[in-house]
Design goal:
This protein is an alpha+beta fold and 556 residues long. Strands 7-8-9-10-11-13-14-15 form an 8-stranded antiparallel β-barrel. The longest helix is centred in the N-terminal third of the chain and has 34 residues. The protein is elongated and about 110 Å long. The two termini are 60 Å apart.
Length: 556
Amino acid sequence: MMASTTSSEESSTTIASSTSDGEALQSLFAKHCDEGLMTEDDLRNVPEIKDMLEQGDLLSSELTEIWKAAPKFPQVVDPLGEEDMAVKDKIDVDSFIQVYRDIDDLFDNDDAAEIKEEAVVAAVAVDDTVADAEEEDGDELKEIFATLGNADKLSFSQLRQWEEITVMIEEEKTLGEDEVVTLWEGVLGVKGTTDGEMDLKGFVDFNNALDDLFELEDDEMEEIENAVMSEAEEEEAAPPAQPTPPRPIITEEDLPPGVLFSQLANENYLVSKEDLSRWGELTDMLKEGEITTDELNALFDNASKAPGTKDMLDEDGFCSLYDAIDALFEDIDNDDNVEEDTPQQELKEELLEFIEDIAQLSSEEGQQICGLDCSELERERVLEVSSELEREPYNQVVAVSASTGDGAIKKEELVGTWDLIYSSSSTMKYNEGLSGLAGGLTRFGGLQQKLTATKYLSDVEYTEKMVGKFGGQEAEVRVTGDWDLRTEVSLFTGKPSNVLSVVPDKVFYASRADKADHWKSLGPMNLLVLTYLDEDLRIMRGNTSTDTLFILRRSK
């Protein structure tokens, strides 16, 4: 049986390679033809075809149909004398190549049928009854269900206390809050709410869907193991760690206090009196005598300290110190009849420059782009600046009236092509992009979102680039679908918000086109809250995980 399978695979491989090499097929034809032509019997005796017929991978009836469809050259033969004259069809080299390609297409169709069969089996597995689940590991799930729920029902808040979910979200960082909500909605068949309760069957389905989220193929596991081994070898070969260089002086002027704090803060997100020496503006004021050391010490001592410390400032304490220093110069500022610059460009440029710094560092260190591999402090800083920017009055996203919809963003304001420049999505980091197809010898190379809208249709198209890790040709994955911009009440704030809803339809990659309705990696961008918008910058947050950011810039 093993020999048969191996032979079959070798035959199909020979055909696949031959059909892409015209010279090889011409050489094969010349070897087995008779004066530039070939009969059906000659074709059946070609070693590769003969082997497939004997193994049963190619049926005789299938080859007969392919032979009938090929262009022929009728030849008169006389095997028994003039009274038995007959016509026997033959094919030339072009028809021979066409026959080979038709045989190859049969194997492609078999692969497609196998993929379709696997999809059907997977769908049936999701819909298995509670009895089937109990036969495998139902006892353990029943025990967990009974521990979490009341009687025969389980609410979302009770499910959220499941230790397995808590560990993946809070400790391992491999699961996002938005993914838990999406799985809950899928099991209960609801949208935009965590209300309702699930029974034991629903809990089993939820567990199966959670397992599917982390299902890895054998080759993917091997790639991860190889990557871990390579990283360990590199660490062993790496030279001894050098002393940490001193942190740089912050030379930017007129930074908002929250942004300045994030740059001064240490790994515990606190600021000491020594850390103030990195504040360039303050150092200049001390040198020029605009403020004395005694004044600074008094202001620092009066500022509220972080809980559990005597000489460290948290963000609130630092902002109070900042305001106290600023108040020393209020009289001077009032006397100067100079119009202050708007902080709009400063905040926006600060955000864009920091994202560019993250991108440059990622490129130098071989990390994923769009901030997917940035540090926790870098993510907190982006979140801090984004929050400041969202509160500015020039933000086109304004409070939406729940009753009238006044202030809602119009779809026309989002139409265009946008480039993803930053995301803190844990799902995109885990999948190495949006489609989840990058990996192995390729890596995520960027994502573009194109939104179009007419009176009746609103279409969305994602274009994801994949580049070779060691150079080579780029590849693209396209995702098409529909989009809508609607007003919904936030589950967290209870206030109306602008929600961008995307319903993917198809995924195109290589020469394939698959339905996208079960393509799980697309989930993070299917339902996002629009929190900031101007002429060329858009900030969106996760509908259920508000700290998850997607920042896009309009393409030039």
